[in-house]
Amino acid sequence: MRCVRGCAGRPAEALSLFRRPRLFRFRQLGHCSPRSFPPIRLKDALVFRRLLIPMFALVTAFPAAADPLDDIVERYMEASHIPGVAIAVVEDGRITRLGGYGSANLEWDSPVTPDTPFQTASASKIIAGVVLMRLVEQGLIGLDDPISRHFDDAPDAWNGITIRQLASHSSGLADGISLPSTASAADLAREAMTRPLAYEPGSTSRYGLTDFVVMTAILEKVSGLSYPELVRREVVEPLGLTHTGFTMLTEGGPVRTSEVMQGRAEVYGYRGEVQRAEEFLYPVRTYAAGGLYSSVRDFATLMQALEAGRLLKPESFALLTHPVKLNDGRDGDFGVGWTFGRYRGEVTVGHTGGPALADVMYVPGRDLTVIALTNQRRFYPLLAQSIADLHLPEPAGRPDIADDRPQLTAGLRTLFAEATAGAPPEALFSEIGKQGALGFYRDFGQAMLIAVGPVRSIGLLSENADGDGTRRLYRVDFERRRMFFVVRADGQGLLNEVRPLSGDPD
């Protein structure tokens, strides 16, 4: 039999099994479980058997109606080579949908279920915010405590930084601190004390890692527990979660060791038409910021408990789901660990991570939560919003305006087409654009474009002067998704920025 390149003697027919796993689908509605059904008596079983054959004939004669949520998930899985996905939907405090699709591990072809633990990456901050507010309620810490209170020899600059500012990414602490993976949160805090502030505390929101590691050092100090122990005591045990925790992965020379977590999903990256395992090493000190494994069932249980006031007081939950004010009275981009946005006219809160290993979207005004977990790093956070579209009405569209510089729009169309193919044209970008936007479209921007499919139409919604250049807002209808982009061009028409918006346009 003919072999293809790289199969090492394996027949081509067999190799295809390794490239494209079978699609397992597990769907659960509400709280059904095998234990909820009564035992079947023998005479009932015989009656059921006599009915089974004609019933089966009817089922096969009339194909099942397509499920819109299944269709959304499976289209993205096929386009972006996602091995496995898990989905949960919570409406009005009830879990109305739990689903697993595809494979958690390609080597074993193990199916994803609602209990499969996935790496949640930066969505771990959702749990960190809950842990912090639990300690606030216990009186162990105050959101407006100066962080210098918790460190001996803290610099004077830390007197004006609060716990609230750490949790909302507005502390002014500098990022880019490099330490061995075995260093503790307290070690990083000591190193951060030697660095000048990056900006005035409370003046702006600036997403970073140092904030959450310093916060971890404080949480561990006031509680006397490690952060993983805190998560277990404050979240896992009170809610009875069964598939949430950490692997405690560490690296010593050429050896990596971790604890066993049964059934966890392997993380993959599809690059160069090859699926590869891509495990990111989260040092234990960063676990509040990233590294938590959890399942969609556990995350849905958490959201149920928070909405019902069973884990936090309503006023504490409100601090997670409302933005922290900056010094000038403006809303920042974050609450206590959670991010904010607007989508289809609704306020949304939650977090993504990986960038799309985890996508948690809570819509307070609709009592709706959508949770999407995947094991594909080369994807973009599109699933939660796409599923939310089934529940949120689409607002009236804004009319297009006349385009007096169509060459800019043509360049945008060219960028999308060539970036999808893996070669974004460098000549379209200014020096500013080459330092930022170009790199995005060589990596995760390409993954985003592959996921949404070819461009169907582009509309210009607004245009404003931007220094000697222009700032444009575009609506782009792709094959599988409508998106909005902010495009900044310099005076020569070269691109400084091509930024996809995560929610509604301004």
How is this structure best described in words?
There is one protein chain. Helices cover 31% and strands 21% of the residues. It starts with 11 loop residues before the first helix and ends in a 6-residue tail after the last strand. The protein has 506 residues and is an alpha+beta fold. The protein has helices spanning 12-19, 42-61, 68-80, 124-137, 163-167, 185-192, 210-223, 227-239, 296-308, 314-320, 383-388, 406-420, 431-435, 437-442, 444-452, and strands spanning 25-28, 84-91, 94-105, 110-111, 118-119, 250-252, 255-257, 268-271, 274-277, 293-294, 339-343, 346-353, 358-363, 368-374, 455-466, 469-478, 482-489, 495-500. The protein has 15 helices and 18 strands. α4 crosses α8 (227-239) and α6 packs across α7. The strands form five sheets. Strands 1, 2, 3, 4, 11, 12, 13 and 14 form an eight-stranded antiparallel beta sheet that branches. The chain has a four-stranded antiparallel beta sheet with strand order 15-16-17-18. It has a domain at 406-500: Nuclear Transport Factor 2, Chain: A, CATH 3.10.450.
What class do helices, strands and sheet pairing give? alpha+beta
Q: Considering DSSP H and I runs of 4 or more, what fraction of the residues is helical?
A: 25-40%
Unreliable sequence segments: 1-21, 31-63
The separation of the N and C termini measures 59 Å
Largest sheet: 8 strands, antiparallel
Helix count, per DSSP?
A: 15
Beta strand count: 18
Query: What fold name stands as the CATH topology of the domain at 406-500?
Result: Nuclear Transport Factor 2, Chain: A
Q: What would you call the shape?
A: globular
